[in-house]
Amino acid sequence: MTSKENRTYPEDFINKIINGDCLEVMKGIPDKSVDLVLTSPPYNFNAGSGLGDKYEEGFNDSLKPDDYLRQQIASIQEMIRVSNLVFYNIQMIAGNKDCLTDLIGIFSKKLKEIIVWDKMTAEPAINENCLNSQFEFILVFCDNNRRKFDRCFFPKGTLSNVWKIGKNTAKVTDEKHSAIMPMSLPLKVLENFSKLDDIILDPFSGSGTTAVACKELGRKFIGIEINSKYCEIAQRRLAQEYLFT
């Protein structure tokens, strides 16, 4: 489904991977009609890697800091508008470091929790004199920033804000995708913060891991992805009889 089609919510959104700009597509989603957002935006990786610009279909992974910040502010604002709870996964790298710290300040009144995803093995630094990176942030946004969750499904004292989940090692597809989320991560979010038939939105859907996790657990999903190649990968994964776990 492309972003140019006229759609009605929810019929043309639910359980679909929509090929389009997430800011444009989310305009068609009513306020607070989504139970949870789970996403991982582009990290602006090449802006600070020294490897040169990287242009994918529909987006540039080497934005100027101010442009990247504006893009992410607008995206997070829409996520908070349409949903009750947002899980926003991002790794701090040279290309987004200033933006990430700015976002934490800008959304301080909406920042409910910071989860540290410990990937258990470190990624070697590209540049000299830099620490290897072993963790990513999951910023949790909500209309109120009280640490108490209004809606969650884990017993008191059983869930930490440091999650030890290894990096993805499964071969999901023969086609290149630079950052496929391990299935254990969306499954953990969904099992603890959503229930059967909830509507889950991933506005940066990539290869569709959030959508596959939703199908595995009986949640409804809306996936938005600007790159048509990644949309095709997601559709093929969703079409498989046996899903990755």
Q: How is the secondary structure organized here?
A:
Elements: E1 16-19, H1 22-26, E2 36-39, H2 46-49, E3 55-56, E4 59-60, H3 65-82, E5 86-90, H4 97-106, E6 111-123, E7 133-141, E8 162-164, H5 184-193, E9 199-202, H6 209-217, E10 220-225, H7 228-239
Structure summary:
The protein is of the alpha/beta class and 245 residues long. It has helices at 22-26, 46-49, 65-82, 97-106, 184-193, 209-217, 228-239; strands at 16-19, 36-39, 55-56, 59-60, 86-90, 111-123, 133-141, 162-164, 199-202, 220-225. The strands form two sheets. It has an eight-stranded mixed β-sheet with strand order 1-10-9-2-5-7-6-8, sandwiched between helices.
Instruction: Count every helix, treating DSSP H or I runs of 4 or more residues as helices.
Output: 7
> How would a textbook summarize the main sheet?
8 strands, mixed
Radius of gyration: 17 Å
Number of strands: 10
State the helicity in percent bands: 25-40%
Amino-to-carboxy terminus distance = 26 Å
Shape: globular
